[in-house]
Amino acid sequence: MMHSVILDSYENRAINVRTSELQTQMVILANHLITYNYLSDPSSEVINAELDMLANLYDGRVIVVDENLKIVKDTYEISTGKTIISDEVVSCLKQGSAATTSNYDQKNGYIEMTIPILASQAVSGDNVNSVSTDVEEIIKGVVLISVSTDTIRTTLSVLSRRAMTIEIIMVILIFIFALISSHYMVKPFDRITTAINDVKAGYTDQPVTGPNYLETEHVINAFNQLLKRMKVLDDSRQEFVSNVSHELKTPITSMKVLADSLLAQEDVPNEVYRDFMTDIAAEIDREDKIINDLLALVRMDKKATDLNITAVDIEQMTEIILKRLRPIARKRNIEIILESKRKITAEIDEVKMSLVIMNLVENAIKYNKENGWIKVVLDADHQFFTVDVIDSGIGIPEESINHIYERFYRVDKSRSREIGGTGLGLAIARNAVLMHRGAIKVSSVLGEGTTFTIKVPLTYVTNN
């Protein structure tokens, strides 16, 4: 692009300079033609020599035409005495200096120009008594010149070859500079790659360090953040496996102890046998609940899980859930109140959203006080609907707020085992809300109660 722009610029400049020179020479020549009365007597050796010199100087052709379109002089000696019919010549005879033309034929390589031959003539004023006179220019003929631009084209060719040589040298130098620069620039990335490979191979789990270049700093920071996240996930996985093992082993251990106690005794009374079997059945139910909760959690963890989205009346769905839970709440004389501020219809998976509300209300019952209360408040705006589950329970310590969604986490382990909690309910509820692209928040005051708020879009939007 630079090559083309520079050569075009030079060509335009050279043509403009040549045209300006020609115009000056032609004006002088036209004046000489009038001075020597050449149009009437073309035998002037001075003018003929000047015309031939001008034609030879610019390697071109000069034609002198009188006002009758007759060719008075042709430096090529081809058309002298003939009549010329040309738009440029005719226009120049009619309009004078206003019709001076200059054309550049790039394809054939020549410049063509027409200049009028003007003679001055005195004209008397309009007033009869006036002695003043005006000067008027009369068109006596036209000078037509056509000159070659071969010298300009030759110069362009030379410049093009030189520019090409310089460009090739520049490309070679840039290529060499790029090779040397890339060698030094890639070195830090090679060190980072080696460090990452060491982490991948398991030789180390320490954060990657390297030169503090701007380019490498972003890569190192991104990888170290990923490494940190992987450590957190790995620690969470190990803790989860440990918790699962412990939770599943505890009921089995209890059943083993109860069964061994029965086997160790002879002639066990029916009442004792029944008590032991009742405890074993309770442990089996507990084991079954843990397994079912784990399966539900695993199904929700799968990103490919499809939601069965339908338009659901939220108030009606919530009323059905609370109707099932009120008998359990009455055993502890806990009152459950539903408050709906407006009619709400949302696109949700009814089964999973029912599981969310059921888990929150069940927890509110389990961790409530005797003769307490639970209020479920439904509300919506133009974009989201909210469900607030407010209770008068024991509350959650501030240091435990950030851990309540962790699997198998219990604020009070002894109380949770006593009332049969698995520590998975809130994890399941949170996953279900996230699957709906919603959010869940909690606020609690220890000893006064807890409020869970879920916020879910009224219209479900897929990833596509």
Q: Largest sheet, described in full?
A: 5 strands, antiparallel
Distance, first to last CA? 44 Å
Shape: elongated
**Numbering strands along the chain, what is their spatial order in the largest sheet?**
2-1-5-4-3
DSSP strand count = 12
Write structural notes for this entry:
This protein has 464 residues and is an alpha+beta fold. It folds into 3 domains: 2-148, Beta-Lactamase; 205-303, Helix Hairpins, CATH 1.10.287.130; 306-457, Histidine kinase-like ATPase, C-terminal domain (Heat Shock Protein 90), CATH 3.30.565.10. 52% of the residues lie in helices and 20% in strands. It is built from 10 helices and 12 strands. Strand 1 and strand 2 (71-74) form a beta hairpin. The longest helix is centred in the middle third of the chain and has 52 residues, at 150-201. The two termini are 44 Å apart. The mean pLDDT is 82.
Could you provide a short overview of the structure?
The chain has 464 residues and is of the alpha+beta class. Helix content is 52%, strand content 20%. It has 3 domains: 2-148, Beta-Lactamase, CATH 3.30.450.20; 205-303, Signal transduction histidine kinase, dimerisation/phosphotransfer (DHp) domain (Helix Hairpins), CATH 1.10.287; 306-457, Histidine kinase-like ATPase, C-terminal domain (Heat Shock Protein 90), CATH 3.30.565.
